Amino acid sequence: MEVSLQAALEALADPIRRQIVRELADVPDWTRPCGTFTHLPVAKSTLSHHFTVLRNVGLLEQRDEGARRLNRLRRPEFDARFPGLLPLVLAEEHPKSSEHPKR
Amino acid sequence: MEVSLQAALEALADPIRRQIVRELADVPDWTRPCGTFTHLPVAKSTLSHHFTVLRNVGLLEQRDEGARRLNRLRRPEFDARFPGLLPLVLAEEHPKSSEHPKR
Q: Which of A68, A91, A96, B96 to pair with B44, CA 20 to 30 A apart?
């Protein structure tokens, strides 16, 4: 699967998705289920969409373990495809809520 | 002016704006007026908006010379603020028109 730069930029041009990426970068692979992101200020259906976008653009790998859907940030793979992009996201200070796009 | 990563990603998540950036990277500073981008498949008012977005996010410097508005890609400044981002744009193969977002 060759992800386009267009798709990668669109995926990361959302502050909630960048927050998910940063939180996953902070923990070991396969330790954070999707259900542990409910602190993010979006509806459950929106959160599910964000995970789908991140998966489709090659940033996430997911597997089901019982009732939980576990995540792995595909950091080396994404770094190889788009060098420099993920480090910008991980280095970003927590964006102010005023910067969140209106939905 | 401290540009946010959010603004930079939004600015570059448009294929026409990335095309403008690539074309400016191919020529010396201050040699391409805005009026020479009319080959791009967008309305003149849309093109003008794209230049404004690129300027606001710190990618372009502009100056008027007679009736022409000349451009400089602020490449070193942008590279210093967002290392690695502009190289991804400049290395992008020309996107297929099917990847252009619907407007």
A: B96
